[in-house]
Amino acid sequence: MRLVTGAGRTMDRTAMRSQDSGFQEVARMDGRARGSASELEYHFVLAADLGLLDATKHARLASDVADVKRMLTGLIRKLEATGKAAGQRPTDDE
Fold it and tell me: What is the pTM of this model?
């Protein structure tokens, strides 16, 4: 998944850059992670439609993914606000 693959690269890049540009990079990667969560959500729907996932498990997993997406959205907003306070432009991904 992109979420896992991108995590290490984000931290390496962030460490090499100044703190201000790091906020923007992390916000961009978090936006991508949110997209990955949406893909995962779709895969759960597909698995349920194909009978590979029962309704109870699907409901629990869908709820968990929705929670993660809400947390990522909050983090992205916080990082963007921090970046704007530091005088940065908003990210292109949002």
Answer: 0.63
Within a domain: 88: no
Residue 87, C-beta contacts closer than 8 angstroms, at least 6 positions apart: 20
Per-residue pLDDT tens over the stretch 40-90: 999 999 999 999 999 999 999 999 999 999 999 998 888 878 776 666 555
Residue 53 inside a domain? The answer is: yes
Gap between the Cα atoms of 73 and 67, Å rounded? 10
Torsions phi, psi of 90, nearest 5? -65, 160
Whether 23 maps to a domain, the answer reads: yes
CA distance readout (Å), 43 to 9, 71, 79, 84? 25, 20, 28, 35
What range does the domain containing 19 cover? 2-81
